[in-house]
């Protein structure tokens, strides 16, 4: 069984963060492991408190995993603070896993800063060059490139600019666009496009976490980058189509729809 690690924040309401990542790994038949960078108190309506995990405990979690287990892929999500980023970069350059997927989580759908704005530059400097692929959404790409993105052309320009910052591959997600949900992948030479029609639902809590974890699982399973993204896009689309009206706000997606359907559970 392939072994895949998420380094991210905990979402106690189960729709995003570590919880979404582990559900996604399980749905892909890979063995999920987690390094928790921060504990958030959040639900479908908002984020109410965050406790960052100390540098030392983050380092020890990474060591505990890599000193014992062969890791086939790593996904990085919420990293919170400068010191969190530094310790992750230090440890990962030490263990040098081949597959690193970076989801540059900045602001929650409810508007809470999950990444301290002072740490944005460190994230770009330290983690971007280590990643095989970085997966910003439109607001994150706007922050990274200091530009406004409303059209496909502007998405392409931003993806090129992020590539110039040292990313090996850039998947700029179009979930925040008004019409089609088109994600674009730039490998430094060519663009590939992954589109689905827009699903009319408010329940998109954790879509970015889920997509990046699905890409990581697919890469660990041996798929090429293009195939890994394409399969992940299919997976997130089904998860959103069957998203769950759990909670009073932005509900989670259905991580196990296809499996449950096959097993006759739904
Ligand atoms: N309403 C929607 N209909 C179809 N796909 C969506 C919708 N919202 C998001 N997606 C898809 O979900 C994935 C995550 O995108 P996005 O919501 O932009 O990321 P984030 O959660 O980081 O803000 C992308 O593949 C995007 O195209
Ligand atoms: C711990 C944690 N990590 C990430 C997100 C982003 O969620 P989304 O994928 O909906 O942008 C979140 N809300 N909480």
Provide keyphrases for this structure.
266 residues, alpha/beta, UDP-N-acetylmuramoyl-L-alanine:D-glutamate ligase, six-stranded mixed sheet, three-stranded antiparallel sheet, 9 helices, 39% helix, globular, binds adenosine-5'-diphosphate, binds (4-amino-2-methylpyrimidin-5-yl)methyl dihydrogen phosphate
What's the topology here?
Blueprint: E1 3-11, H1 17-27, E2 31-42, E3 47-52, H2 55-66, E4 73-76, H3 82-95, E5 100-102, H4 120-127, E6 133-134, H5 138-145, H6 152-164, E7 170-172, E8 181-186, E9 191-196, H7 207-220, H8 225-241, H9 257-262
Helix pairs in contact: 1-7, 2-3, 3-4, 5-6, 7-8
Bound molecules: adenosine-5'-diphosphate and (4-amino-2-methylpyrimidin-5-yl)methyl dihydrogen phosphate.
Q: What does this 3D model show about the protein?
A:
By secondary structure, this protein is of the alpha/beta class. The protein has a single domain (3-262), classed as 3-Layer(aba) Sandwich (UDP-N-acetylmuramoyl-L-alanine:D-glutamate ligase), CATH 3.40.1190. It has helices spanning 17-27, 55-66, 82-95, 120-127, 138-145, 152-164, 207-220, 225-241, 257-262, and strands at residues 3-11, 31-42, 47-52, 73-76, 100-102, 133-134, 170-172, 181-186, 191-196. The strands form 2 sheets. The chain has a 6-stranded mixed sheet with strand order 3-2-1-4-5-6. Strand 1, helix 1 (17-27) and strand 2 form a beta-alpha-beta unit. The longest helix has 17 residues, at 225-241. Residues 137, 173-176, 181, 183, 196, 198-199, 204, 207-208, 211, 233, 236-237, 240 line the site of adenosine-5'-diphosphate (ADP).
